[in-house]
Design brief:
By secondary structure, the chain is α+β, with helices and mostly antiparallel strands. It has helices at 11-15, 23-27, 35-43, 90-97, 126-130, 156-161, 178-185, 193-210; strands at 46-52, 58-64, 71-74, 77-81, 100-106, 113-123, 142-153. The protein is built from eight helices and seven strands; from the N terminus they run αααββββαββαβααα. A seven-stranded antiparallel β-sheet has the order 2-1-5-6-7-4-3, with helices on one face. Helices cover 30% and strands 25% of the residues.
Length: 212
């Protein structure tokens, strides 16, 4: 149980715990995508998008594709393809309710990340969607982000976590498969190992059919 007297409830109390922000940490925030930010995005195959609904309920969702999948339309505008998913539409519904988004771009092997904050729209322009076609499959929509802030984030989190260090990679088999976890949490997973293995194999087949 967390005792109330140890909860930080205002910004003044928060900032009293830390040294003042370094000048460069403030000055590094850009209002447009300069050549360095664009180069980073062009190398990134993966990002996380943070959204909130009208009531402030938050969600973070991964987006991934081949390197450079996010299009830089101009210095102030990005376009993110919306590939097939589970159709929960959490991020998309949130954007309609509250268009403010935060993006975190990641490049494999880089300890730095790029943060972009802005305002998103859901766009069905055929001309744009055609440029994002993969395997002859056209998207239903794209997320277009108007950039308000962009800045590089330091390497400390990735270095602390040893994220890219193979010596720290964990064995996925030490946990149940995704299918088994979800079944355990819902209808119950089958006790027969062969039946469970078939369910896992079917999921892999589904992945191969529905990535695009």
């Amino acid at each position: 149980m967390i005792r109330p007297q140890f909860v930080i409830a205002d910004e003044q109390s928060l900032r009293s715990l830390f040294q003042p922000t370094h000048t460069l940490a403030t000055l590094k925030v850009q209002r447009a995508l300069d050549r360095h930010a664009q180069a980073f995005i062009q190398r990134s195959p993966f990002l996380c998008i943070g959204t909130q609904d009208m009531d402030g309920h938050a969600d973070v969702s991964p987006r991934g594709d081949p390197v450079g999948f996010v299009q830089i339309l101009d210095q102030h505008t990005l376009a993110i393809p919306d590939r097939p998913g589970n159709n929960r539409l959490d991020s998309l519904s949130n954007i309609i309710a509250n268009p403010r988004v935060g993006l975190l771009f990641i490049v494999p092997g880089y300890d730095d990340t790029l943060r972009v904050n802005g305002t998103a729209r859901l766009v069905t322009d055929p001309a744009l969607l055609e440029t994002m076609r993969v395997n002859d499959r056209t998207l239903r929509l794209a997320i277009v982000v108007s950039v308000d802030e962009v800045f590089l984030h330091c390497a400390k989190a990735f270095r602390r976590s040893h994220l890219w260090d193979p010596a720290h990679f964990q064995d996925r088999s030490e946990m149940p498969s995704l299918s088994k976890i979800i079944l355990d949490q819902t209808n119950g997973a089958p006790s027969d190992d062969n039946e469970m293995r078939k369910i896992d194999d079917d999921l892999e087949v589904e992945y191969s059919k529905t990535l695009y």
